[in-house]
Amino acid sequence: MPWKSLLKLPDFGLFRQTADFRLSVSTLRINGILPSRGDVQVQAENLATQVRCHKLDSVVEDISTDRGVISFKVNRKLLFSSTVMKTTISTDEKFGLNSELLNTLKRGTTLVEYSSPNIAKKFHAGHLRSTIIGNFIANLKQTLGNNVIRMNYLGDWGMQFGLLGAGFGQFGSEEKLKQNPLQHLFEVYVRMNKEAEHNEDMKQAARDFFKQLEQHESQAVSLWQQFRQITVDEYQHIYKRLGVHFDIYSGESFHQDQAQEVVQQLQSQGLLKTSEKGTGVVDLSPAGDMNSVCTVLRSDGTTLYITRDIAAAIDRKEKYNFDEMIYVLLFSRDINIDCRCQHVPFGLVQGMSTRTGEVVFLEDVLDEARARMLHNMSQAKTTKEMDNPEDTAEKVGISALLVQDFRGPLLSDYRFDWDRMLQAQGDTGVFLQYTHARLCRSVLKYCYATTFDPSLLLEQTSMTILQHLLRYDEVLYQSAQDLQPKHLVNFLLKLCHLTASAHRELLVKGSPPDVAQVEKKLHQHAILNN
Ligand code: ARG
């Protein structure tokens, strides 16, 4: 648009003309668009005249000047009807997606690996973060039109299965395994681990079991399979509470044999070097001086975790031919194999515990969130009778967890704080759900009309909400760029605050019918966005 280039305005970002906006001569001077001398009002008027000569953009309907400030007025009728209102209820989930800005994003197949817990081991805060962040990224990519493959890479191989297999023979119970599989497997593993520390026979039994597994002996394999399947079933059930699912449950076990092939491939390409210690390494140093290496082979010829990880990456590329693969994990294991692979790191969570102590299972966190929320609801005077308070408490509690985690930059560490995250006021998931519920109840139910006159919306509150809603695509764009959920979460929280002011200031009930109709429509859009 010519007038924008005249003012050297960026195409996207600050000036998308969703709001009336002003530019002062002094700013334009600093940016070198105007000379730094002369009368400011004269300069402003000259520039305004030039801009008027260029065809104004249809959204900017008027331009005026006052004491060195140029004001651009947007055509709110056009803005309102063409941009927001053409999105009808029936296409609600498409809101904001048909955008020039979003169309500039590359699309393709995205494989996202997240959650990836280890069978029979603790599900720690890092796994929780990986689960919810990965799910956010997968949802975002899917919403933006990518073909998304959601993968869980289980820790389903290794010496822990030796301990588990041998330990199950000693301390296991089929009954308990059915009742509470994750708990029971964890108990057996912990107990056997302890025993093996001082009992040589136990240690040997574990080694033997793992050897049988590696040699694919059917009895060992079938027990392993049972443990794995039961774990996957249980996790699927718990993930569902979080709104999380996976297309593929892969795992380390899948790539045992392929790991040796990786070593061979590296060798045939001349990339495998032998270190002074006799291990097999790949030289990653730019100078080629072995300053930074990746060990892929122990001196006894066995492969390492990373070797299987490389095998897994190659296998995924061959099977799913992704355009990008995103690993959502706490620690970088140097798996940025090429530029199509990206690592999304995140910070530590301190103090994640429940009333009964340290968190061991994902289910504990979810149960605690629900119980605490239920308690808060029973304390609040304003809580209305509801059909299923448990279900409400569960949903609100989980929102609280998500908002706590997503508000800041992913790389920041944070302190887990039940009381703060479950507060009804302030930037919490509870406030978000409350606003959404309130909108649904008071507005959606009574709003049927399809025609209205947006120019009747004169209050600044309405305009601000409208302008905010129109930033939605920018918010998605930002998140797509850096894969951070904070943009979206803060956008929604702001929307909630704006909605709260609208509730105070725009009294749909008392307004003349035509104005009320538009106001309702606006509320409705706030709902859809939530
Ligand atoms: N299971 C691992 C852990 O709990 C995480 C797996 C991460 N993914 C990977 N491709 N290495 O630490």
TrEMBL record:
One of its GO terms (molecular function) is ATP binding. It catalyses: tRNA(Arg) + L-arginine + ATP = L-arginyl-tRNA(Arg) + AMP + diphosphate. It comes from the Eukaryota. Keywords: Aminoacyl-tRNA synthetase, ATP-binding, Ligase, Nucleotide-binding, Protein biosynthesis. InterPro entries: aa-tRNA-synth_I_CS (IPR001412), Arg-tRNA-ligase (IPR001278), ArgRS_core (IPR035684), DALR_anticod-bd (IPR008909), Rossmann-like_a/b/a_fold (IPR014729), tRNAsynth_Ia_anticodon-bd (IPR009080). Residues 432-522 form the DALR anticodon binding domain. The keyword Ligase applies. Coiled coil: none annotated. GO terms for cellular component: mitochondrion. Gene3D superfamilies: HUPs, Isoleucyl-tRNA Synthetase, Domain 1. The keyword Lipid metabolism does not apply. Belongs to the class-I aminoacyl-tRNA synthetase family. Catalyzes the attachment of arginine to tRNA(Arg) in a two-step reaction: arginine is first activated by ATP to form Arg-AMP and then transferred to the acceptor end of tRNA(Arg). This is Probable arginine--tRNA ligase, mitochondrial. It comes from Mastacembelus armatus (zig-zag eel).
